[in-house]
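Saturday, quiet lab. Running sequence design on the structure tokens for the scaffold JK sent over.
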């Protein structure tokens, strides 16, 4: 049985991608690094590659949050508030489940992200479904593949 956790996406193997870790025993989130250098322009959304994918069990998802220091010190936030990585995103046909982080720069100045900077955190969560749930169970593709 596969274990819950992170893996490097195949096209990013050998590119010094670090698997996320928790910094303390009581931390909920796994720190996620940027896989690339990028300039986050003021008032713009930039999508950052992580080089990662995540496997989780049935009834689980991975919540992606901006690191609090990025928001407080630099005015950065996730463009979608909280990222939700569904279980069936793992190994999808479009991009192998590559976790991308859409960051919005609310400040008036550009912010440089370097490869290896911790930009977000991932928290594995459980969820419930409605008693009369009728999900079709069709495996899906990448971001926004279930509709607008």
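Result came back. Writing it out in full:
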């Amino acid at each position: 049985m596969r274990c819950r956790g992170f893996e490097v996406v195949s096209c990013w193997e050998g590119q010094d991608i670090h698997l996320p870790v928790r910094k303390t025993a009581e931390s909920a989130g796994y720190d996620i690094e940027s896989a690339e250098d990028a300039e986050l322009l003021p008032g713009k959304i930039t999508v950052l590659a992580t080089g990662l994918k995540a496997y989780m069990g049935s009834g689980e998802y991975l919540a992606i949050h901006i690191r609090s220091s990025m928001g407080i010190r630099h005015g950065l936030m996730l463009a979608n508030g909280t990222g939700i990585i569904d279980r069936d995103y793992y190994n999808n046909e479009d991009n192998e489940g590559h976790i991308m982080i859409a960051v919005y720069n609310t400040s008036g100045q550009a912010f440089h992200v370097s490869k290896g900077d911790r930009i977000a955190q991932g928290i594995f969560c459980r969820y419930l479904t409605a008693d009369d749930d009728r999900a079709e169970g069709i495996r899906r593709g990448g971001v926004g593949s279930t509709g607008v």
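Notes for JK: The CA atoms of residues 33 and 127 lie 26 Å apart. The chain has one domain: 5-126. Ask whether to fix the surface positions before the next round.
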